[in-house]
Amino acid sequence: MPPYLELTSPAHSARPSANPRDRLSYSLRAHVVDLETLERTLSDAAATAADLTDKFVSEQNRLVRLINTCLQSRHVPRRSLKNRECSFYLRSLDGVALTALTWCKNGCGQNVDRECMERWVVECVDSGREVTCVDCRAVWLPLCEHDEKMPEER
Questions:
Q1: pTM value?
Q2: 113, HSE (Cβ side, Cα atoms, 13 Å)
Q3: Domain ranges in the chain?
Q4: Is 132 helix (H, G, I), strand (E, B) or coil?
């Protein structure tokens, strides 16, 4: 490496003389040191950005797993459909398709006719009340993928 490109800190170099070659050498050393500092700073910033990206992706994956569980760990088990009646009209639920039913996932597990529940939701919303289970008054959780699974499949 030519002597005028030696990697020395300008703080430790003597001030150049009036000689133009010395001034150029001093200026080049100062720029090389500045470039090295900039390179280290950019390298540190890239490492920090990579760490933050990894942490963000990890947190995002954790949240996706929570959403995908569909509150399953919080679901109350669905009651059997045998010898049960809809809490609204006391109609038998025997033989009713699961697509026509929903259940209280947050409290008692009681099955109800989906159309009846939809009317109840509208009534609650129109009157400014929180939507709750007709039987146990627990906060009503919305439909999910588990609504179409038999109680024993859970």
A1: 0.49
A2: 16
A3: 3-68, 75-153
A4: strand
